[in-house]
Amino acid sequence: MTDQTAYPVSKSDQEWRERLSAEEFHVLREAGTERPFTGEYTDTETKGVYSCRACGEELFRSDTKFHSHCGWPSFYAPSADDNVELIEDRSMGMKRVEVRCASCGSHLGHVFEGEGYATPTDQRFCINSVSLRLAQDEEPSA
């Protein structure tokens, strides 16, 4: 990945390996991708806040999640623009925009524009479930 000293949450590869499962490390720290339609949050409609699985930084809210039928959870906007970092990605012979956690630099997925989804931003943040942790909203007391 990149020089981790540039992020507020900075750990060595060994420290990340101790904190994350092998699959989480592969996706978050080595910019891997989980298989489509296998992630725990792909189709969930649970209301709540999605945070970085590596460092806990808030990234997305359920009210911006939508069904794109692409195989990964999709959001049309982060909870705050400065919670994610967008980086040009020319790997695999393509030109894409990688999405990383701005707090720890972990790979989350990619963002795509102009695909014709009826969302307020015309963006699709295509995010690996294994990069996220969902904190369900509390149900209001009756």
From TrEMBL:
GO terms for molecular function: metal ion binding; peptide-methionine (R)-S-oxide reductase activity. It catalyses: L-methionyl-[protein] + [thioredoxin]-disulfide + H2O = L-methionyl-(R)-S-oxide-[protein] + [thioredoxin]-dithiol. PROSITE patterns: MSRB (PS51790). GO terms for cellular component: cytoplasm. Pfam families: SelR (PF01641). The keyword Metal-binding applies. Its cofactor is Zn(2+). Its EC number is 1.8.4.12. One of its GO terms (biological process) is response to oxidative stress. Gene3D superfamilies: Peptide methionine sulfoxide reductase. It is an enzyme of class 1 (oxidoreductase). Keywords: Metal-binding, Oxidoreductase, Zinc. Residues 13-137 form the MsrB domain. NCBIfam families: peptide-methionine (R)-S-oxide reductase MsrB. This is peptide-methionine (R)-S-oxide reductase. It comes from Luteipulveratus mongoliensis.
